[in-house]
Fold this protein.
Amino acid sequence: MDKIVIEHLTLTYSDGTESLKDVSLSIPANTITVLFGPSGGGKSSLLRILNRLNDLADVTTLKGKALINGKDILSPEIDVSALRRKVGMVFSRPVPLPLSIFDNVSYGLVMAGVNNKKRLAEAVEMALTQCVLWDEVKDRLNAPGIALSGGQQQRLCMARVLSLEPEIILLDEPTSALDPLATAKIEELLRELKEKFTIVIAPHNTQQAARISDTAAFFLQGELVEYAPAETMFTLPKDKRTQDYITGRFG
């Protein structure tokens, strides 16, 4: 069964912007799926729908279904806090909390009511290890998170998500503020993490989309133009608009 199934999803904001137009796609588990295309195409809106962040936006129309493990997460009965633990989100700029490295990673667990020190310590070590950050920070866990480099801060934010043991990780341009070396580390990390998690990412350029994706979805002005395995999408796209975008003719 596919991990995520989007069925006829339409989203309109109160200013009249139609951000998603009857979008349908299925995302398999344990893959990296990229959403790419020009800005304003609906990629971030789709990511935000998947963990109900759009609840905070001024939305006038939201129709269709967004199924995770077969359950419609847009249903009013859904426990949104539980959903956000299952579906973690990483943003374009790393935003460490004004806390220690340890407390940054354990923050979500503490907010969820976990106060057993041994369990918190184990969760922090596991998450930092998964983000290939443990060896770099294990001797200074009480140092402020803000003292880390940009690339380390982004991995710290990913560790904060992973400490909650999610099933899905959403990333919105997670390397746009990072240098090439830090970007390469994050990309390598994502390839390792897909063994355990389902990853959906809106990368900040087409080159990154081609490098890291298993499947790719091209969005243009709210429309899902094409959705295909990455090797097909970036070498033999079916739609001329996709081809023009990938080859740099527009965007």
